[in-house]
Specification:
It is a single chain. The protein has one domain: Acetylglutamate kinase-like (Carbamate kinase, 3-Layer(aba) Sandwich). It is 41% helix and 17% strand. It is built from eight helices and nine strands. 39% of the residues are buried.
């Protein structure tokens, strides 16, 4: 479909520790402004788990003598669904369909906004966003998180790490590896990276809290972020 943008909305900006109502109000205002400018525009949001996912997963690991990877993933998935219901709720009638929990069967897209959440163990919300882009004919996924750009290495451990304006899929694969680990903190999850590369999608990573930058990104103006795509 034309005029559809897929946005992976990181849980770290919805609820870094608790729900960030100030940010969500600003986000809501920007998104409604964007949609009001063209009645044909549609958006798909895929919500991450954020602080609640990490807190409950950590509690499970601390309490359980033999923590199960799938159960840990399910805990994170439930947090993504809680965030998804919140985002669906604030957009009211703009989001007519139920929250999508299986990106391979999203159903009809009747409103202006579709909201999706975690699917099943082994698959992150980044992967869900890629699958939904494929399903609806999108060629770009906008990945909004708490970082403005992807770095060449982890800047917390490598003083030589530099922010990148562009990356190839091979470069990102070398950075994130090829195995999904629940709660793993990477710019884009390894399984989603492989799928996006296969589809020759473009992924744009940008700071989700920067509303002015988000406006530029949505409108096709010059923005701050990292563009990841085919060579």
């Amino acid at each position: 479909m034309d005029n559809i943008k897929v946005i992976s909305l990181g849980g770290s900006i919805i609820a870094p520790d608790k729900v960030d109502t100030d940010f969500i109000k600003k986000f809501h205002n920007e998104i409604t402004r964007y949609l009001d400018k063209d009645p044909n525009r549609k958006l798909i949001f895929v919500t991450g788990g954020g602080g609640p996912a990490r807190q409950y997963q950590r509690a499970y690991r601390e309490i359980s003598a033999d923590a199960d990877s799938d159960l840990q993933d399910w805990i994170g998935i439930m947090a993504t669904r809680l965030n998804a219901q919140l985002i669906k709720g604030i957009f009211g009638k703009l989001c007519e369909n139920p929250v999508v929990t299986d990106p391979t069967k999203p159903g009809s897209f009747d409103g202006r906004i579709m909201v999706a959440a975690g699917w099943k163990p082994g698959w992150s919300t980044d992967f869900d966003a890629v699958v939904l882009a494929e399903c609806f004919g999108g060629d770009t996924v906008i990945n909004l998180s708490n970082v403005s750009k992807v770095y060449s290495a982890d800047p917390n451990t490598d003083p030589d790490a530099v922010a990148l304006d562009r990356m190839s899929w091979d470069e990102l694969k070398a950075l994130v590896g090829d195995k999904w680990v629940p709660g793993k903190n990477v710019p884009f999850d390894p399984v989603a990276t492989a799928k996006a590369a296969e589809l020759k999608l473009t992924v744009i990573t940008a700071a989700g809290r920067d509303i002015d930058n988000l406006s530029k990104l949505l409108e096709g103006a010059e923005f701050t972020g990292t563009i990841i795509g085919p060579e």
